[in-house]
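Below is how a single chain appears once it has passed through the pipeline. First comes the sequence as given, then the structure the pipeline wrote out for it. We keep one example in the README because the format questions we get most often are answered faster by looking than by reading.
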Amino acid sequence: MKREQSLAGVIRERLESIEQRLAVGVRQEVFLAELAEAGYETSLSNFRNELWRARKRKEKTEGQTGKGGRVHAPLSAGQAAQGQRVHAASLTAGQAQGPAAAPQGSTPKEGPAPAPAAPGEARKITNPADIRKARKREINLDDYIDKEGE
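Resulting structure:
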């Protein structure tokens, strides 16, 4: 017997309902049983793959229509030159309505400026996140001038 719709189509059609039920704790095996009753025999791993694909497709189409998905704030000239992107969710209300966020740099703290680390005492880069932080770091050398000795 030939079905009118593919398994992927059925999952995309029911995605919102599936997501709501998963959020309240319905097990994925229950969906497999329901699909089997409707004539869609599949394995748990295939169901998970089709569910993942449906979520990605929904995210992609919502991002194109402006209803959701990942939206990035406009880049300032400094950010574009440095290759930085700012996720819109990380912006405050004022930043989201105003111009693009400025690149984050080092800002001096109250009190004396910290002494720079000796060459042998440099912090070790231990993972990719440290590399990204090091690349983005902006250092204002004027903050490290000993103002009392002038």
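Residues 44-65 form the longest helix (22 residues).

See the next section for the split statistics.
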